[in-house]
Design goal:
Elements: E1 4-8, E2 10-12, H1 25-28, E3 35-36, E4 40-45, H2 46-58, E5 64-68, E6 72-74, H3 75-85, E7 94-95
Parallel strand pairs: 1-5, 2-4, 3-7
Antiparallel strand pairs: 4-6
Length: 108
């Protein structure tokens, strides 16, 4: 039996449901917050993740695990994008700490 797995990082994109999902909730919590956590994560667009599933399904040579991840994105960059698209939102201006939280990943 052949097995293919698609392993995305934090998945963001258009919502299908009216309620918040796990990936969008931390971003929604920034609204009204006084500070934000200094963090870096890799974002994957939900449409890219869906496309990866389709490509893996359609390719008979596909096997194993495939990672879907974008470039490292700092929380400051996420806030900058939110301010650009939603200037009316009350978003935090300062970090809650000075350390850069850079997660370590072992991908094999």
């Amino acid at each position: 039996m052949d097995m293919v797995t698609i392993n995305p990082d934090m998945v963001l994109g258009p919502l299908l449901q009216p309620t918040l999902n796990t990936s969008v909730e931390p971003i929604a919590k920034l609204v009204g917050a006084e500070t934000f956590r200094t963090a870096t994560c890799r974002l994957a667009d939900v449409r890219d993740v869906a496309n990866a599933h389709i490509l893996a399904f359609e390719n008979p040579l596909a096997c194993g695990r495939y990672c879907v991840a974008g470039k490292p994105t700092h929380s400051c960059e996420i806030l900058k994008i939110l301010r650009e698209f939603y200037p009316h939102l009350n978003l935090p201006q300062k970090c809650s700490d000075d350390k850069l939280s850079m997660p370590a990943f072992q991908v094999t």
